Every structure is written in C-alpha cells, then in structure tokens.
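REQUEST FORM: STRUCTURE PREDICTION
Request ID: SP-0412
Submitted by: Lab K.M.
Chain count: 1
Length (residues): 440
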Amino acid sequence: MLNNIFNVIKKRIWWILGAAIVFAVVFVCIIQFVYNPKKETYSAEFDLRLPGGGVYPDKTELWLEDIIKIENLLDVKNESYVPEAMRTNEYAGVDIEKMIDEDDIKFSRNIKSLEDGTFSYTYTVEIHNKYFKNRNLARSFLKDVIQSPLEKAKSIAESMNYLERLYEYDTQLTYSEKISALTLQKDYILSIYNDIKQLYGGTYVPKELDSTKSIDDYTRELINVFNDTEKEYINKEINEKYYFFDAERMLDNLNIDISLAQREIEKNNLLIDGQYEEMEKVIQKLPPEDAVKQITSFTNKISEYRTLNDTLEDNISQYEAQKNSILNYTEGAGKAEKEAFDSRLDDIRDNLEACTQTAREVNIATYNEKGEVNFANNNIKPKGGINVFVSIIIGAIAGFILSSAGAAVIDLSRNYSSARKNGESGDVKKDSESDDTAQD
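STATUS: Completed
RESULT:
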C-alpha cells in the first residue's frame, strides 16, 4: 500500500508541488490577514523626558498612566495635538470606547536596578491589533499614544496664557494692585528661567531661537526691568503725592470721609455739652465733698470725647491734604507730572510684556529641543499570532501532505476502478467460453 502511495507521489510530483504551493499561499494569507489580526498585540518600551519633569508647562501634574485613559486616547484619535492643517484623520475608524471596555490597551512601569545602587524607570504600552486596518496603522497609533504627553506639553507651552497677570494690571483700579500685578508677572517669568536653569544650567542656549543668548543672559535682562530700587521709588512717590489711579472715585470717597468725620465731631460736641449740663446739676444738688466724686466721671467722659474729636480733626486734615494733592494732579500744576508717572508705569508694563514674549519663545524652544521620548526598540514588532515564516512552513507541509493524499486517493481510485472493469470483462469471457464448450 505504501509503495503504491510513494509511486503516486513520484508520478504526480509536479502536480502535488503546485497544489501544495497554492495551499501554502492561501494558508499564509488566512493566517496573516484573518487569524493574526485578532490575536496580535503591539507593545513598546520607552522613557519620557520633559523639561518640566513631572508637570506640564502650566504646572498641572503629569501622570503617565493617564496616556491610556479615554480622554487622551480620544485626543490622539482626533489628532488634537496636531495643527489642524496637518491632520489626516487616519484614526477615524479606531473604536476607542470598545478598546477601553475590553481592556485591550495596557500600561506598565518597569524598574531596573543599576550598578551604582540607583534605579532607572521605563514604561511599556501594549495595544491590540484588531482595531486597526493594518499593522502600520497600529504601530503609528501606538507611537502617537506614547508621544502624546510630549506633544501635549508642547501644545500647552504654545497656547497657555503667559500674560494673565498683565491683564490684571490693565483692569485693576488701584496702584497697589497694579504694582502687585507687575511684581507677580516678573516673578512668573523668572520662575520659567529658573526651572530651565535648574535642569540644563544657566549657560544653556535655545538654538531654535537663532540667538547666542543663554538663560543667564535672559535672566539678567529681566532683572533690570522693574528692579527693587525702581519699585521702591514708585511706591514712595505714590505715598508722598497721594497718587490714586481712579482719582475721581477717590475724591468722592474723601468727601464722604470728611462729611462722616464732621458729623462724628458734631455728635461728640453734643455729648460733651450734655456731660457739662449733667455735671452742673450734680454740683447744685450734692454737697461739695460728694459732688467732687461724681465730677471726675463727667470730666473723664468729656476728655474721651475731646480726644476722639482731636483724632477726627487730624483725619480731616489728612483727607483735605489728599484732596488738594489729587486736585493738583488732576486739575492743577501737577497734572503733567502725574501723567508722566502713569506713562512710566505703563512703560514698565510694556517692557514686561516684551520680556514675557521672549520667555514664551524660550520655553517653547526648550520643550521642542529637550523634550524627548526614547524607545527601547524603534522596530515595533507584533506579539501573538503565528509568525509568517512558521505559517509558510506549516502551510507548505500541510499542503504537501494534503496534495499527496489527494493525488493518492484519486490515482488509487482510478486504478481500483480500472482493475474492477478488467475483472468483470474477464468473467464474461470465461462464461462465453463455457457456453461454447457445452454446445459442442
């Protein structure tokens, strides 16, 4: 029997090989395009370096685990971190909700002990292939998910409001609030430079700006704007000249304060008169030795009211002096001087705005140059499923066996049918010869 099968294989070898090749091709295609996409996953190990360390440029905390949360995955799908003109919508068909529900994307943290006793940290994201039309799209999506914290950081660095405190300066109605806003703005810019200096040193030069200035150079330029000496002089001038930004409102308030103080003095004077009247009645009713004891309480009260009136008179004098100063720089000779003061303060504001714009460019350049994602292996390969070479071998062997079996079955069936026909033909011939002999 085996000899017959081997003879059939030898006889039909080219037909068997051709059929085996066809089967192998079909088998490999089914494995690679039908079976594997349902079983394969892609994973990438990486580490992330941001200038802000564990925070984004706006000081919100960065948690790497959040990169596989639905909000971030939808941002990646919708290409939220890509300029609108450059969006391709290539991930439009990716079902993020199903991916989350079926736990088909995972994040893990890897800790490695180093020879010096410290530890290094890397991270791994694994994603299922079944959500993508092809492997290249799966790899691309995985890389974009991993790079999303960096792209988000760059986007925040470009879009966040660096001028918030200067907007406060523009809307405040008192000089103290305006000076506070200028101080906060300068401190904010300085904090940007200090954060960069702490990580990369004061000699770091952001090359993207096409400038030779270092972080130390930018810091020195900033320190010269609205320095402590200038701030002290401005505050002194405000206090000595009773400068108020909203002078008209302040004049109304001063008139109210003067009126209230005058009413309080009038009330106290009435109370003093009342004390004198009561004291006279006591003197007339009581013997001198008893009246003296009562008079002391009246004189103490009278002294208290007079002290209050003295304080109120001093306050009125100060209010009147402030009114005269305000009227001097709103309507009188000091108007030009006050306008020059306001102009000087606005110039400081404009200089800080220019410094802020520079700090923004430095910050963006730093994130573009220093922010990076390092992959342990740039060639992201699938895991799970059946390897293409293994599927070729299996397909070829299975194809050869099935083709050989098929050829053997077909040939043996033909031989059997032929033998059976030959057997039946021989029996008929024998029967005919027997009949002829009987007749003889």
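NOTES: The domain at 2-162+369-388 is CATH 3.30.1890 (Bacterial polysaccharide co-polymerase-like).
Reviewed by: T.R.
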